[in-house]
């Protein structure tokens, strides 16, 4: 939680400083790519503020209207951020590039651009390193791209993707200014503005897809799903466990629904103890699992007849029936 906020705060601070510098440079030089980069940094600053709104909102306690809490607020604001990048960042940059292609203007005092791009490289580079280190620490994946795509914390992976796109934009702006200066032609700078817009639009589409998956209800990691099923199947009171149904309600808030079948003839006390034991074991191994719902399947009585509920099956069991110790220990999951 704190790490995510730190990455977002760093991103907001660096983007705000860089946005002002880029707009000043654009005003002095007339660079189209520099203006596109200024828009890029300004949009990233606003996006960071929206991510903080989502981060704060998701901490609200559950209430009558939202019994599962507000964890998905972060995913909603992440989706809004993706749309802003596409519409404002990508759209305006592309429009500016087209305008400069149709009405080219020569660059003036390009030294301003190089100085600002150097400042932007240092600032955005630092923000990228912060987001990169925290993303790698939160996800143990072979590559940073896989870690970003597997992350359930939309604020963290959005900041990293934004910073990556910002560094790519700096490179494009540098090439546009340098080529325009070397060739004495304003068109490379205008083309760079177009490419910056395309880069932002592509980033927005990727972020939109990732946040949409979380917003509509993405399952927990495969390792968690398999681990939960192993815990359930290892319990001696369970004869069958269906595939666990999981959903992320927030980065560290997973809902689990289990369809299980208890051994026939268990007392009601044994069933309740088994449920408590399963919930405790799952939460101990996977702290991010906050809500667990266990649904017993229809059971069979000792004579083979179906019962209507666990209580019905327990009714034929003798009082004080033995419990069900785990068939395997935690080390065998």
Provide a descriptive summary of the structure in words.
65% of the residues lie in helices and 8% in strands. α2 runs antiparallel to α6 and α2 (32-57) packs parallel to α7. It has two domains: 2-216, Cation efflux protein transmembrane domain (Alpha-lytic protease prodomain-like, Up-down Bundle), CATH 1.20.1510.10; 222-332, 2-Layer Sandwich (Alpha-Beta Plaits). The longest helix is centred in the N-terminal third of the chain and has 30 residues, at 73-102. The chain is an alpha+beta fold. Strands 1, 2, 3 and 4 form a four-stranded mixed β-sheet that branches.
Set out the fold topology.
Elements: H1 2-29, H2 32-57, H3 73-102, H4 111-138, H5 144-150, H6 154-183, H7 187-216, H8 222-233, E1 238-241, E2 245-250, E3 253-262, H9 268-285, E4 289-296, H10 310-315
Parallel strand pairs: 3-4
Antiparallel strand pairs: 1-3, 2-3
Helix pairs in contact: 1-2, 1-4, 1-6, 2-3, 2-6, 2-7, 3-7, 4-6, 6-7, 8-9
Jot down its keywords.
Alpha-lytic protease prodomain-like; 4-stranded mixed sheet; 10 helices; 2 domains; Alpha-Beta Plaits; 65% helix; alpha+beta; 333 residues
What Rg, in angstroms, do the CA atoms define?
27 Å
Summarize model confidence as the mean pLDDT.
Answer: 84
Segments where pLDDT lies below 50 for 5+ residues?
308-321
CATH class of the largest domain: Mainly Alpha
Structural class: alpha+beta
Gross CATH architecture of the largest domain? Up-down Bundle
Domain count: 2
* Secondary structure tally, helices: 10
**Secondary-structure element string:** HHHHHHHHEEEHEH
CATH topology description of the largest domain = Alpha-lytic protease prodomain-like
Distance between the termini: 29 Å
Overall geometry: elongated
Instruction: Summarize the amount of helix as a percent range.
Output: 55-70%
Q: Mind describing the biggest β-sheet?
A: 4 strands, mixed
């Amino acid at each position: 939680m704190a790490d995510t906020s730190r990455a977002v705060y760093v991103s907001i601070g660096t983007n705000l400083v860089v946005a002002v510098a880029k707009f000043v440079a654009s005003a002095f030089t007339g660079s189209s790519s520099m203006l596109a980069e200024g828009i890029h940094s300004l949009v990233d600053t606003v996006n960071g503020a929206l991510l903080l709104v989502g981060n704060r909102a998701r901490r609200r306690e559950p209430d009558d209207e939202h019994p599962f809490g507000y964890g998905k607020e972060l995913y909603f604001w992440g989706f809004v951020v993706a749309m802003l990048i596409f519409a404002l960042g990508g759209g305006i940059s592309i429009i500016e590039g087209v305008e400069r292609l149709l009405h080219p203007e020569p660059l003036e005092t390009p030294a301003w651009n190089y100085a600002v791009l150097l400042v932007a490289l240092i600032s955005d580079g630092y923000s990228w390193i912060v987001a990169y280190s925290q993303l790698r620490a939160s996800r143990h994946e072979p590559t940073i791209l896989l870690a970003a795509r597997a992350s359930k914390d939309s604020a963290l992976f959005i900041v990293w993707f934004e910073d990556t796109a910002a560094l790519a934009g700096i490179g494009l702006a540098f090439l546009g200014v340098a080529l325009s200066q070397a060739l004495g032609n304003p068109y490379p700078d205008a083309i760079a503005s177009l490419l910056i817009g395309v880069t932002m639009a592509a980033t927005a589409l990727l972020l939109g897809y990732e946040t949409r998956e979380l917003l509509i209800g993405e399952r927990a990691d495969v390792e968690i799903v398999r681990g939960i099923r192993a815990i359930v199947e290892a319990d001696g009171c369970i004869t069958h466990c269906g595939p666990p149904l999981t959903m992320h309600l927030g980065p560290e808030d997973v809902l689990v629904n289990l369809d299980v079948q208890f051994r026939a003839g268990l007392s009601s006390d044994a069933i309740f103890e088994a449920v408590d034991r399963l919930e405790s074991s799952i939460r101990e191994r996977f702290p991010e699992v906050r809500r667990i719902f266990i649904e017993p399947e229809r059971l069979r009585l000792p004579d083979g007849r179906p019962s209507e509920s666990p209580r019905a099956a327990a009714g034929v069991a003798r009082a004080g029936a033995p419990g069900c110790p785990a068939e395997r220990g935690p080390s065998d999951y």
